[in-house]
Amino acid sequence: MALQVGNMLVRCAGQNHLRCFTSIANKLLQPNINHASRDYSKKSDSLTPTTEETAKPKTALEKAKDVASKIKEAKRKFDLYDPLNQTAQPTLFEAQLPPRAVDIVIVGGGIMGCSIAYHLCREENLIGAKVLVIERDPCYTRASTVLSVGGIRQQFSIPENVKMSMYSSQFLRESKYLLTVDGKDLTDVQFNHQGYLFLATEAGVETMEKNHKVQKDCGASVELLTPRQIKAKFPWINTDGVALGSYGLENEGWFDPWSLLKGLRQKAVAHGCRFINGEVLDFNVLQPGKKDVPLEQHFAGDGRRVRGVKVKAEGYDDVMDVNCAILVLASGWESGRMGRLMGIGEGSASEWMDVPIPVEPRKRYVYVVHAPDGPSIDCPFIVDPSGAYIRREGFGGNYVCGISPEVDSEEPPVDVTSMDDLAVDYDWFDEKLWPKLAHRVPAFNNLKVKSAWAGYYDYNTVDQNAIIGMHPGFPNVYVATGFTGHGIQQAPAVGRYIRDLIFDGEPQDLDLSRFGFERFIYKTPLKEANVV
Questions:
Q1: 412-463 residue pLDDT tens
Q2: Bridge-partner residues for 320, per DSSP?
Q3: Helix/strand/coil (H, E, C) string of 191-232?
Q4: Are residues 269 and 139 in the same domain?
Q5: Dist. CA 135–CA 280, nearest whole Å
Q6: What per-residue confidence (pLDDT) applies to 68?
Q7: Are residues 451 and 366 in the same domain?
Q8: S-S: 454 plus which of 15, 258, 281, 422, CB 3.0-4.6 Å?
């Protein structure tokens, strides 16, 4: 009987698992007695009925338990006889190595990669797509996600940015329900609902009013405040030089980026996604058989495509090939380098390969300060016209602050190969940031730096906006990068959008097509005015 079941399982491998399990269970539930081949010539030594023959009929509950037990046993045997290794759980050794083939490879396991994995693997994934996420920094020591200040706002100048943050805000509100896994701690992203307060000088009033109209048209709850109204609402703010303010009334605030990352990752894993610690060294690119293949033939399979990745798993010297049908590039500030490995920016214009992915790392400092006389619970997330920002951290007089350089200003190159490059410049705080904070909020004249850290933006050098969607040179490569400091708040929306493109071929809830790579090819940048 066991051999019979094993043979059935081998034949079933690669087919719909539930159908296999049901078929096997039915087979196992059939009586072991084959009346057609029963030998009636043997005489019984006793006319007394056996215990089996006198047993009481089983109740419906007992039969149901039997069925469940048989199915469980069938699944166990299916795992043992599965030649394609499609259902068996990997051993500890195997879990550290990538599989030979999957449906979708996501390069980058930060907040963006985890959100995309979560949306691809959630309950609606009825086709059973196998997803692999490759992350080379398992402790996330240099990941932009965990080095973020965790802000979320709807005050942008581009409608799609406003809508993404509104979507993500709702996701954060429901995150305990969406991300908690049975047997695991409750996912709590610690969403603090507190509005952003943007301040503008006279020169910035027109831009702020235009942005306000865009935000209101998208359904955002924001209001414009005169200097007198700002002073009445926040009397501890110095309004000198301020001509107008924009304040978010809901769907804004800050949250814990690590908790969101952890929640997305553990939920994706619970739904079958594989994560491995390793570095992608190269890509297996199938080149077209002839030059200048028309776009429609790319989608028909005649053009360029990525067939897989070359991975060096952590702790192993060998470089392994992982074949895939679809590749998602979500590697943050490394996306530009990853694109060049695929030939993006190295090819011809006729093949849409002449323009590189315009993303590079830009270093930013974040400081945690203690100001005993600072504002309390009514402190919003303040963004000064100078680029300085500060928000409350808890209720003990602690604050998180930083400052972004001017968009077009020159910045020194970064050395991402050295951890020394993440050393904090405290003179930057004393010379650049503190004077601006103390001018805007006089209570910050009395403060002390408690800690600080440095991190990298995945900086879009062209228009400081996200790059999302399919790359025009590859019919099976999707990118999600270049968020320029906004990725942590836009990740839930981007994950949903990429999922829709891959599974449905078009957006279902959010249309983010204006953030496609084509705008760099046609030189039509999409500038965002509110970059923090």
A1: 667 666 656 788 999 999 999 999 999 999 999 999 999 999 888 899 999 9
A2: 311
A3: CEECCEEEEECHHHHHHHHHHHHHHHHCCCCEEEECHHHHHH
A4: yes
A5: 9
A6: 58
A7: yes
A8: 422
The pair of structure tokens assigned to 88 is: 């068996």
273 residue type, one letter: C
Residue 88, domain member (yes or no): no
Q: Is 249 helix (H, G, I), strand (E, B) or coil?
A: coil
Q: How many CB atoms lie within 10 A of CB 269?
A: 17
For helices 60-81 and 17-29, angle between their N-to-C axes, nearest 10 degrees: 120
Domain residues for 215?
179-250+362-455
The residue out of 455, 488, 503 marking a domain boundary is: 455
Let me know if residue 275 belongs to a domain. yes
Boundary residue ending a domain (425, 455, 485): 455
Q: Indicate whether 160 belongs to any domain.
A: no
Task: Work out the end-to-end distance of the chain between its first and last CA atoms, rounded to an integer number of angstroms.
Answer: 67
Token couple for 89: 């759980």
Question: What's the one-letter identity of residue 412?
Answer: P
| Phi-psi group of 200: left, alpha or beta (phi > 0 → left; psi -120 to 50 → alpha; rest → beta) | beta
DSSP letter string, 419-464 = GGGG---HHHIIIIIHHHHHHH-GGGGS-EEEEEEEEEEEEETTTS
Please state which of the ranges 88-102, 169-183, 242-256, 268-282 shows the lowest mean pLDDT. Answer: 88-102
Which CATH number do you get for residue 306? 3.50.50.60
Within this chain, do residues 263 and 351 fall inside the same structural domain, yes or no?
A: yes
